[in-house]
Fold this sequence. Notes:
The protein has one domain (52-293): TolB, C-terminal domain (Neuraminidase). The chain is mainly beta. The strands form 5 sheets. The protein has a 5-stranded mixed β-sheet with strand order 12-16-15-14-13, with no helix packed on it. It has a 4-stranded antiparallel β-sheet with strand order 3-2-1-21, with no helix packed on it. Strands 4-5-6-7 form a 4-stranded antiparallel β-sheet, with no helix packed on it. The protein contains 2 helices and 21 strands. The relative contact order is 0.18. It has helices spanning 15-28, 34-47; strands at 59-64, 68-73, 76-84, 92-98, 103-108, 112-116, 123-128, 139-144, 149-154, 160-164, 169-172, 177-178, 191-196, 208-212, 217-221, 228-234, 244-249, 255-261, 264-268, 275-280, 288-293. A hairpin with a 4-residue loop joins strand 8 and strand 9 (149-154). This is Gll1766 protein. The chain crosses the membrane at residues 34-53. Pfam families: DUF4394. Keywords: Membrane, Transmembrane, Transmembrane helix.
Amino acid sequence: MATLTLGLIHPGVGGVCFRVAQILWRLFMRPNKLIALAGALAVAASALFAGAVEASESPLIGLTDGNTLVRFNSARPGQTRTIKIRDVNGTVIGIDFRPANKLLYALTDTNYLYTIDPATGASTFISVLPTPFGGGNKSGFDFNPSADRLRLVGKHTNENLRVNVDTNEVFPDTDVVYDANDVNAGKDPNVSGSGYINNVAAAPATRLYDIDIALDVLVIQDPPNDGILKTVGPLGADFGPTAGFDIFIDDNGVNSAFAISGATLYAVDLVTGKATNVGTVGNGSLNFVGLAAVPAK
């Protein structure tokens, strides 16, 4: 399947723009119509460009550093349900829902890949990655909804891997690096959270965002396979040594980004990068290393 990444679509635009994209995708998704599709999307995005949309009420699952899932709602982060992950080899370092089947996937520090039942914590073994990922729990972990590939971005290693979870193929892409013309050019990236917008199966357009916890900035990784990082803006908050990040899309096609550091939940503006403190998750005693937005039904 071809993957279209359209930089002109504003991440905070309401559902109208995304719905237009879906309609155009169905009408024009033929090899000789890709250019027409991109042009039509650009026109739609320009016409419907709007200011940033405030974060919606979103169901989320946090991953702690102790193989535990914590379910909560962004509007009520203090009310949580804890589920212990069972029968996995090693420590889980990342989780994400795969748009293609809406299953929750998890990777351990021993490179074992599983699906996890978010209600019970029961695990189902998928594979062992043939190419080890050395990023640990301070890394980005997210599915590309258009290409249906798992993206792994290593904080300390700057690794940039693409995984086909069906065939267990791992494609080492170019290590992440700041664009030569970026305000942070020459600085060492420290990506500890990644998320794609328009996180639905076969999304007609998407874009990858990362959080750099050393510089405390939101960045765009574009093109994702080339690992080029472009700074969106400062988070305005001092993130700790680990962070989780994901982007929820509601039934109207509105994207809302969230990040978690320590036990503090933030809503992240994808236009400016600003992180707004939403509240403390649970009683504040847990240390979170990952975050996954539960897909809309």
